[in-house]
Amino acid sequence: VQLQASGGGLVQAGGSLRLSCAASGFNFNTYVMGWFREVPGREREGVASIKNKDGTTYYIDSVKGRFTIFSDSAKNMTYLQMNSLKPEDTAVYFCATSRRLQYYSSGFLRPDLFDVWGRGTQVTVSS
Fold it and tell me: pLDDT tens, 7-19?
């Protein structure tokens, strides 16, 4: 199982970025994919996740209406479209996958329920 995230960068407040996560080595269509972020001195937090089986999405309150998570099953890719970025969105972003969450009814933004993680990609939003 392998995940590779890309797409981070430096953007001004109000701008947009799209993060990409390339997945391989597992049944992408049934797993749950998630995006998380981490700031030094703070715990890693779940930003968004998607149940690839049925497309159900979950978001942390602070990004609702600004971020969109979606998957392309033909390419085994999951994306995080980030619009109206704010300086407080600055963080290292990680994609992750969970096999067990497809059987759960909650916990879709809990880092401890995700099993495989990709390397992070830095997102910096300047004010």
Answer: 999 999 999 999 9
